[in-house]
Amino acid sequence: MASSTFRATYRDFEITIVGYEIPEGWRMAVELKRGNRVQVMRDTGRVFRDFASLRCVGVLTSHIAIMEETTGLE
């Protein structure tokens, strides 16, 4: 089993997307860090076929969470 990590910065947030391989595919965890505040989101309901697919969903998940926090929109 393997794991892969993607890191990025967006709007003063440090984004870390972690994919960990399971027999059926890949699972995802996303960490958003801004200053001393850390938010971790784990997606245990979905299995992704590869890390590239997982990374795309992780980037979208991060964007939505950041927009909700910075604009107050849901």
Structure overview:
About 30% of the residues lie in helices and about 55% in strands. With about 70 residues, the protein is an alpha+beta fold. The chain has one domain (about 5-70).
Q: Give the termini distance in whole angstroms.
A: 36 Å
Q: Can you list the strand order of the major beta sheet?
A: 1-2-3-4
Q: Please tell me the overall pLDDT.
A: 94
Strand content: over 45%
Major sheet attributes: 4 strands, antiparallel
Order of helices and strands: EEEEH
Based on the model shown, name its key terms.
4 strands, 1 helix, single chain, about 70 residues, elongated, alpha+beta, 4-stranded antiparallel sheet
Short characterization:
The chain is of the alpha+beta class. It contains one helix and four strands; from the N terminus they run E-E-E-E-H. The radius of gyration is 12 Å and the shape is elongated.
Give the helices and strands, then pairings.
Layout: E1 3-10, E2 13-22, E3 25-34, E4 37-48, H1 51-71
Antiparallel strand pairs: 1-2, 2-3, 3-4
